[in-house]
Structures are given as C-alpha cells and as structure tokens.
C-alpha cells in the first residue's frame, strides 16, 4: 500500500483486487483468498480487507457464499441474486 496516497488503505486494496479480477488472476467462479491471507499478503488489517471486499460486493464483482467463502461473480450473477 502507498502510505502517501490520498486513498484509504481499503480503497487501495479494493483497486488491487479489482485489477486482479479484471486481469483474470481471479476468474469468475473462483474463491478469493481468505481475509487473513489477504491481510498478510498486503500487510493490512483484516478490517481493511473486509471493507475492500464490501466495496467489491457493492460493485457486483464478488459474492459471499455463507460457510464457503467469497467468490468472483460471473457477469450478471450479482444482479440476478438481487432480483430473486
């Protein structure tokens, strides 16, 4: 993370994860690493990871499956879940 950035840490992490999704590092249907793993990999707090995931969820890029984890959404999947 860039300590001199005007963005909050969770916004920076959300941008990194978003780029990973867009580049195919995290393809649709794939589970993201755990919050603890992401916090260790990026040297940020678990709370920052959770906030970054919330940003991605609000953008429809990821979805949570209770008891399983956080998965990259397939195109149109997040919208379909909201409608149902």
Rounded mean pLDDT score? 88
Beginning-to-end CA distance, first to last residue: 38 Å
* Beta-strand segment tally: 2
Shape: globular
How many H/I helices?
Answer: 4
By CATH, the architecture is named Orthogonal Bundle
Pattern of helices and strands: HHHEEH
Indicate how many domains the architecture comprises. 1
Helical percentage: 40-55%
Strand order of the largest sheet: 1-2
Computed structural class: mainly alpha
CATH class: Mainly Alpha
Supply the CATH superfamily name: Winged helix-like DNA-binding domain superfamily/Winged helix DNA-binding domain
How is the CATH topology named?
A: Arc Repressor Mutant, subunit A
Tell me about the biggest sheet? 2 strands, antiparallel
Describe the structure in your own words.
Strands 1-2 form a two-stranded antiparallel ribbon. By secondary structure, it is mainly alpha-helical. The N and C termini lie far apart (about 40 Å). It is built from four helices and two strands. α1 crosses α3 and α2 crosses α3. It is globular. The C terminus is likely disordered. It has a single domain, classed as Orthogonal Bundle (Arc Repressor Mutant, subunit A). β1 and β2 form a beta hairpin.
Summarize the structure.
The protein is mostly helical and 84 residues long. Helix content is 51%, strand content 10%. The chain has a single domain (9-83), classed as Arc Repressor Mutant, subunit A (Orthogonal Bundle).
């Amino acid at each position: 993370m860039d300590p001199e950035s005007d963005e909050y840490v969770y916004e920076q992490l959300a941008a990194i994860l978003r780029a990973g999704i867009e580049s195919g590092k995290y393809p649709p249907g794939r589970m993201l690493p755990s919050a603890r793993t992401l916090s260790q990999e990026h040297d940020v707090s678990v709370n920052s990871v959770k906030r970054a995931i919330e940003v991605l969820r609000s953008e429809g890029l990821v979805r949570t499956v209770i008891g399983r984890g956080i998965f990259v959404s397939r195109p149109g999947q997040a919208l379909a879940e909201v409608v149902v």
